[in-house]
Amino acid sequence: MKAGIPVKKNEYYDIDIHGLGHEGEGVGRIDGFTVFVPYALPGDTIKVKILKVKSAYAYGKLVDIINPSEYRIDPICPSFVQCGGCQLQHVDYGEQLRLKRQKVVDALQRIGRLEDIVVHPTLGMDKPVRYRNKAQFPVAADPKDNSVQIGFYAPRSHRIVEIDTCHIQHEMNDAIVNTVKQWMKKYHITAYHESTGKGLVRHIFTRIAFKTGEVMVVLVTNGRHIPNEQSLIHKIKEINTTAAPVFASNAECQTPNCNIVSMVQNINTRKTNVVLGQENRVLWGKDTITDYIGDVKFNISPMSFYQVNPVQTEVLYNKALEYAGLAGDETVLDLYCGIGTISLFLAQRAKKVIGVEIVPAAIEDAKKNASINDIRNVAFYTGAAEEVVPELYGQGHRADVVVIDPPRKGCDETLLSTIAAMQAERIVYVSCNPSTLARDLRFLEDQGYKVVEVQPVDLFCWTYHVEVVVGIQRKESMK
Fold first, then answer.
1. Rounded to whole angstroms, how far apart are CA atoms 174 and 178?
2. Per-residue pLDDT tens for 265-323?
3. CA-to-CA distance for 348 and 237, rounded, in angstroms?
4. Which of 66, 159, 167, 344 is most buried, most CB within 10 Å of its CB?
5. What is the per-residue pLDDT across 70-85, written as a single tens digit (0 to 9) for each?
6. Which value, to the nearest 10 degrees, does the dihedral of the CA atoms of residues 294, 297, 302, 307 take?
7. How far apart are CA 138 and CA 202, in angstroms?
8. Given 77, 86, 432, 461, which residue is catalytic?
């Protein structure tokens, strides 16, 4: 045992869990020393085996539950512990929502030094199952007998856990995965080996439009040629008449069932962990599927960024629209705009919207989506927000409202400084990372803005992730 550290590797201890860590692991203390334990939750008293000891904390393995938390439940998925997709299936859903709000509060106070901020209860789902409209299934060869494995990665590994069904994915995926697997077995189609870079099929990638029921199946391959391609297309098309399930668990969906309307080959020959390559080839049907957020129509390709929970995305965007406080005469700057989802939502209420996104393909999609909706009061710019916005500001552009939806790393200080210099009356910050959000909010407060209210939204039920919408106003305008 190291001096001053009260725990020792491979030793067993009883511990009370009092909180959750950033990745959903339980947090407890042994003589004041912090211990992280996956699959433990606040209120548990557990026996833990210490696996790793650092100078300021340790990691442990849950060995036994001595006294369970009142919020502990049986996971709905039998593969919960083996699969890395969910982290909180052992937690009552109402308690998950409370814990996610607390995660936001803790970050605002600890990192942002923001006290007395209104943080509303997390907005959750009535039916938090089968909510994902996108799925990525890795395909690999079993190292023992070379048989085909399709499923999800185990935590912190690329070892595939095979599953019969996933309760957060749409039911249609079960039939698609089984069809591809049977086709591979029948025709001896090889699965990809990460270690050697050999083998054909790398991933099965699906998109499902909840409002229209249109389904896209993407086969990611390590090469252009697909043996017995027509047989696969025929089998996939057959799903529409033999296995298409109803939307049993999402009452918000406006179609009784779904149909595959697009099958695409994505070619990815690089030795990389990135799922999709840059080249797509339509095997059958359309090159995009169509979905709606509110009244706005979107054409979605394999490469499009599109929020994975369409029901909660509408909740999120409506809250962003509320915080924007648009009266119809504002110019709005939408940063990290992707394919224009928020931009087009805002354009229905604003005088003009300017969207900025670094990915050229996303901007092309945004322009197409503006066109198909006949929305003309939007303009899109390609480039890094921290470069484009200062350039626009230097050219005399101003914004009354700024909407920011950055990646997990948050915003560059140059960008935030430019927004402050513009003296935008309101800022709406959409974040998937409470830690970087809190950092950026602290910076904006120091630049003359006031955080008015914070709304957590549960887009990723049963996981540790939480999406947050923040309403921010310029202090001068509040006097």
1. 6
2. 999 999 888 999 999 999 999 999 999 998 999 999 998 888 899 999 999 999 999 99
3. 38
4. 344
5. 999 999 999 998 888 8
6. -20
7. 6
8. 432
